[in-house]
Specification:
Elements lengths: L9 H11 L3 H11 L6 H10 L5 E9 H5 L7 E8 L4 H9 L18 H19 L4 H12 L10 E8 L2 E8 L6 H14 L15 E8 L3 E3 L11 E6 L2 E5 L1 H7 L3 H11 L12 E5 L1 E7 L5
Helix pairs in contact: 1-2, 2-3, 6-7, 6-8
């Protein structure tokens, strides 16, 4: 029989919970918010995003150097996890890269981008997610969801990355999403409508009284791809992920446009968001870019 696992320190426990929940965005947000030092956090997050549906992560063991030496002033934690899935990783990763939205852009819009009608459907899903977060789930909401899912074209059920952004009076009120296409696009939008309304750690949960004044934006992303250097980043057309020294941060393409930033200003603000000096992007950083199609409309109680 395996010995009982030792208790985790608070930050370690939070990281473990996010890994076991396959919560890629939550793991990276924990690192950004707390500064927790997890060796290989970027590869771990990428792996979580590549796991096939139904995959499970189980903690096998947890130890600290402090437990062995008795010195907890400079203690290092070690954890092991097992991943189980019915489908092998190699087989599951290919559909994500070949999904309906995993394409190389040639113009201002990504090739194969969702149509306006499809974006409207996704926007309605985001609104349903917000309703579930703020008003609670019930038979009426569930019935609306089932009717909407039944009307979706098949390509909206392919894996896709998506963000949902909430604003009130022009000010950010919540924004959460998945960069990698780790689950069906419609589910990513539904979940992140809920997440943006109540799980963005920068804000208090959205209240019922705020709903009528919300602007809701849905962004559908192409999978990120690496670039050789920051000079290749196309401001306003591409979103960008900066990674350096175990830290990372992301901006959607529209952020620079809305703020009126050029490339240097965008990357400086992105470095600060990652908890790095504002000029950290100039050397030693790695970059990935992606494109997005987005749709914005006011919150509506009836979808």
């Amino acid at each position: 029989m395996r010995e009982p696992l030792k208790p985790w320190p608070p930050l370690d426990a939070q990281a473990s919970a996010r890994i076991q929940a396959l919560d890629q965005a939550g793991l990276l947000e924990l690192e950004r918010r707390t500064g927790i030092t997890v060796c290989g956090i970027q590869p771990i997050a990428i792996l979580l995003g590549m796991l096939p549906p139904g995959a499970r992560v189980e903690q096998l063991d947890y130890q600290t150097s402090g437990a062995l030496t008795g010195d907890y002033r400079n203690s290092v934690s070690y954890a092991s996890f097992a991943i189980t899935a019915e489908q092998p990783l190699a087989a599951s990763a290919e559909p994500a890269q070949g999904s309906a939205f995993a394409v190389v852009p040639t113009d201002d819009q990504p090739v194969g981008a969702p149509t306006v009608a499809e974006l409207e459907l996704l926007h309605r899903l985001a609104l349903l997610g917000i309703d579930q977060a703020v008003l609670g789930k019930g038979p009426a909401t569930e019935a609306r969801l089932q009717r909407l899912v039944a009307s979706l074209p098949e390509r909206l059920k392919e894996p896709g990355g998506a963000f949902v952004t909430l604003k009130r009076d022009g000010e950010l009120r919540g924004c959460i999403g998945y960069i990698l296409p780790r689950e069906p696009l419609y589910l990513a939008v539904l979940e992140n409508g809920d997440n943006a309304a109540r799980r963005d750690p920068r804000f208090t949960p959205v209240t019922r009284d705020e709903l009528a004044g919300l602007s809701v934006e849905v962004s559908v992303l192409t999978p990120p791809r690496p670039i050789a250097g920051y000079e290749e980043f196309e401001v306003g057309r591409q979103g960008v992920i900066l990674s350096k020294s175990g830290r990372s941060a992301v901006f959607l393409p529209e952020v620079a446009t809305e703020q009126g930033w050029d490339r240097a200003e965008t990357l400086s603000h992105l470095a600060l968001k990652a908890g790095l000096p504002s000029d950290a992007w100039r050397s030693g950083a790695e970059f990935q870019v992606f494109e997005s199609s987005h749709y914005t409309a006011p919150y509506s109680a009836e979808q």
